[in-house]
Amino acid sequence: MTAPAPSVTSLEIMPVYGQSENRPIPSALATLLDNASIGQVHFTAGMVTASGGAIGPEGAGVASIDQNQPASGFADARGRGRVSPAFALQQSRAAAWRDAGESARGVVIADHGFGGRRIEEWQPGDTSPLGRNQLYWMREAARLGAAQGISVTCPHVLLFQGTSAKDQPGPDYRAAFETAHAATVAQATALFGTAPRLIVVANGADVNSTGDLYAIPTVQYRLALDHEGIVATWQRLYPIHDRNVHIADRAQILIGETCAWAAAEVEAGRSWNITYQVAKSGSSVVVSFALRPGETLLERTDLYDSFGGAATCPHYGFEADGGITAAVADPAGNTVTLTLASAGAQWLRLAHQVQDCSALTDAGGQTMSAHRSTLFGSLSRASRFVANETLWRPVPGFRGSFSGEQFIPDAGG
């Protein structure tokens, strides 16, 4: 293990509230990330679990970190052969710095989450060690930086978690998140002087949402806005490789790249979040989306051709109580006008379908989330790391009810 080169004068760390979709997985694509950020990606070496096991960039999982044995230094994280959205986010940032001639800036990667965990487990007082592990890692990174004369910052915290809570009521998820996040923010502020900005990959449902509550996507969208954070992207956009919920290496990198793109745009003073408004008058409903200056609505009409086709996503992905008789998009005006079958409709939703898409696979056996919309902002860019792929800006999904002419989003959304 080697310490950072003397030319490295600053390092970024990023706490993560993660789950199985964000877990590091083996991939040959890791070499592309490594080569774009040579010498700028590190991890905190020397920590061990309570049973003595060594802890690498993948974190301790559900094992407790032995807080009596401090980390020994920052080590080079290249050659691990693994990718994750969190890793791709940070490595994309390091690659951008290298492109700009800022090779003295680097990142410290880690993932102190584990698959199948609920957000409560990041609360420091929970029986699970996840939250305490992450707080200890933050302290050790700050201590090592101070000892080595390296400036360590914590500008972001990533939330890519929620499928395991698909039947958890929205208010319960929000309350648990707020407790866990408050501890992270307090720790970061005390150690690094500023509160990290929340970056959210909103959960997008698995391939079979029949019978599941799925309040979490709307809660995560609102949490990002309430915390003045970034709704970077939505998991529903990315193919699923196991007919359940898990994404493969290509999708993980695309998600991480998109998060890095979003963070860079916000840091440059440009808007990123796409928000929505709903206005009802009788059987007519106008849904407007706040896009960037010069950006328009875009429909990707062929998005689900290989995953069940247009029948799985009628009316751009809108659904309403009693049905919809017409859906007309105005790309230049960034609106969609819906004509409801009943002026007395009780609910409306977008990309929140209750359906089983587990059998709707492409030639490679991949499928897509049951939550679907073909609407996007027109701004896009080519992926740097995944050949022939594009980074997109999906519009937010939502669901809610009508009280007369007023639309009331679901709790948290």
Features:
four-stranded parallel sheet, 22 strands, alpha/beta, single chain, globular, 413 residues, 23% helix, five-stranded mixed sheet
Architecture blueprint of SSEs:
Layout: E1 10-13, E2 16-17, E3 25-26, H1 30-36, E4 41-45, E5 73-76, E6 82-83, H2 85-99, E7 105-108, H3 130-148, E8 151-153, E9 156-159, H4 170-192, E10 197-202, H5 216-226, E11 230-234, H6 249-267, E12 275-281, E13 284-290, E14 297-299, E15 318-320, E16 324-330, E17 335-340, E18 347-350, E19 375-382, E20 390-394, E21 398-403, E22 406-409
Parallel strand pairs: 1-7, 1-8, 2-9, 4-7, 9-10, 10-11
Antiparallel strand pairs: 3-6, 4-5, 12-13, 13-17, 14-19, 15-18, 16-17, 18-21, 19-20, 21-22
Verbal overview:
It is a single chain. With 413 residues, the chain is of the alpha/beta class. 23% of the residues lie in helices and 24% in strands. The protein is built from six helices and 22 strands. It has helices at 30-36, 85-99, 130-148, 170-192, 216-226, 249-267; strands at 10-13, 16-17, 25-26, 41-45, 73-76, 82-83, 105-108, 151-153, 156-159, 197-202, 230-234, 275-281, 284-290, 297-299, 318-320, 324-330, 335-340, 347-350, 375-382, 390-394, 398-403, 406-409. The strands form six sheets. Strands 5-4-7-1-8 form a five-stranded mixed β-sheet, with helices on both faces. β16 (324-330) and β17 form a beta hairpin. α2 crosses α6 (249-267) and α4 packs parallel to α5 (216-226). The radius of gyration is 21 Å and the shape is globular. The model has no long low-confidence stretch (mean pLDDT 95).
